[in-house]
């Protein structure tokens, strides 16, 4: 692969971009009207056909192109409204939404070509010019990315099978474990959904009498009344979503984000997510009952910001000033939207601030991690955000790790263990787990890098840094042990010989929150004695190993064996027409064999 071929892809992308931008309205109101149709189209396709469209030929590719073109479309079209407390009412038609979809998909091709050019220059993709066409294939190593992506689903599958497994655990609720920490036996605590009692299996029946039509004169939309049981149901759903999303994005409750905290952001976001989810639920029920309703027009709603702030304050329990400060980070303004033009990762905010006292609520934000969007927007507003969020991550991750090794069998050491050589710090060990029964000790390097991006250059840089750090850490720890011996480690861990505590075997682990197989980004990590895993994979290994005779050794062996394994994937080829040129993408899209996900 030559740089000239990558440049050809970039030139093709720029030519196509210029053509697409010429199709956009030149006047402010025309751009705003198309902006609304873009949001409506994304809300409809993102919510209702995210799953079904993937079953149709080319469905997933079409939806992905919409997501990849979303950022540039919003950056170009979102103009603030000038008239206070007003919203231009317009009917959404199949033609207007079809044009909006087309704009997003064509802009998505631009984003895709730029990323493919970056991939080719970094050895992740191979690009060949075949006459007037391009042939693009991902390298064999790129499949390693799938192995990391699949781990969360595998963990969920393992948790579902746990009660009938033979791992040796007694399954308990988190409440029982916290109430009776001294229960004899080996327990695995499963966390149930927050306020589970609020969830209603008959939610659709509860909603039916609440929905009705709203004829605006420019399209028939959905209106609905309130019921406390419905509100609670969607609040419970929002709490479950937000709990996972917040943790995945790495926003600790105590993180200081200007005048508010991570807990404040979470409380306000949960309330907003519950309103979005309730709206989708009510429109979905109305769709079945009221044939005259326009679902695409009904999904995207607007209203005064002041009224929403009051509602969120009541729902979340946060004071008004806190809600207003949170809205500053959550609601995307037209000025902030301009940054989306050069941001390749799709970002759908919880709210759009229309600039005239009104807000727009894009329910398609529910199709992605809303907290990732919040974090990115806050970083654009305040450069100190990245450090503020990262400050608590290591302690947070260490506490979760130690939660897997409770009871009298294990000793978990607080804080970092610093290894010194010649009077200076050689390296740190982020976490230590000592097995009193066997004398085995696990030394851990914990990494929580932010991989919530599809920017190829950033991903490659992060992978290169991670690989170098893991190899350096592994080498220094082994060197220190070779030079100082087991007795020095015993002393550093303050093990007591009179209690017959002594390290007999050492196992090195590296746990990364979301990505560890750096070969998927063109960087190999050569650390033969280091068991490397992403967080869900380690959690699954701990669950599957159970209270075995030598837990740390067995986990180490399992992770070491799994590191080089890649799932079986079936390519889904597609061909794109870009500025009169055909681009054949052979294996960027893939389906994963279902049996592989259960191994």
Mean pLDDT: 91
Helix-and-strand structural type: alpha/beta
Distance between the termini: 35 Å
What gross morphology would you assign? globular
Count of the separate structural domains: 3
Spell out the key features of this protein.
599 residues, alpha/beta, Restriction Endonuclease, 21 helices, disordered C terminus
Strands, helices and their partners?
Elements: H1 3-21, H2 28-48, H3 59-77, H4 94-121, E1 125-130, E2 133-138, H5 144-149, H6 151-161, E3 170-173, H7 174-179, E4 187-190, H8 203-207, E5 211-215, E6 220-224, H9 228-249, E7 256-257, E8 260-261, H10 262-289, H11 295-299, E9 301-304, H12 305-316, H13 320-330, E10 331-332, H14 334-337, E11 351-353, E12 358-361, H15 370-381, H16 385-390, H17 393-402, E13 410-412, E14 417-421, E15 424-429, E16 431-435, E17 440-447, H18 456-484, H19 486-492, E18 505-512, E19 530-534, H20 535-545, H21 551-562, E20 569-571, E21 574-578, E22 581-585, E23 590-592
Parallel strand pairs: 2-22, 3-4, 10-11, 17-18, 18-19
Antiparallel strand pairs: 1-2, 5-6, 7-8, 9-12, 11-12, 13-16, 14-15, 16-17, 20-23, 21-22
Helix pairs in contact: 1-4, 2-3, 2-4, 3-4, 6-20, 9-10, 9-15, 10-12, 10-13, 12-13, 20-21
